[in-house]
Amino acid sequence: MTVVLAITLFPVAFIAMWCGVIWLLGRVSGWQRLGQHYAYRGEIRGVSRGFQSAMMGHSRWRLVRYRACLNVTVDSGVLILKPWFIFGLFQPPLGIPLHDLVRAERTFLFWTFCELRAAPEPRIRILVSLRLANWIERQAGGPILCAKARDF
Description:
By secondary structure, the chain is α+β, with helices and mostly antiparallel strands. Helix content is about 30%, strand content about 40%. The protein contains three helices and eight strands. A hairpin with a 2-residue loop joins strand 5 and strand 6.
């Protein structure tokens, strides 16, 4: 009887725990806050890259890693970030207009990356590789507004 109960409750407990963790990561990363301004509900068209990585968060030390689980699309001057289905339960696709983004290059040890910030929520950092940031600019047909790293 106890084994049967444990076998039936395990999937329910696992799904509840997974949903709780995904919700918490969306809050800590700032994804849900950006979603209040930039939730993207349209059809995703344009040039996409799958399996992309980024880090998001409010400070340098509270970053959530989205490692190889983002689809990044550039469509008509909008940067669309969409996590895979299994990670996107409480994290809607973000459609951030490129004119709302500010970019700064940073270096940590041997890694050079690009920090993006959106105008309505400047405390939330989106860290992407320099290669991905350059790809976004090429697809957009123009540069993202640059700022000095110390101004961030």
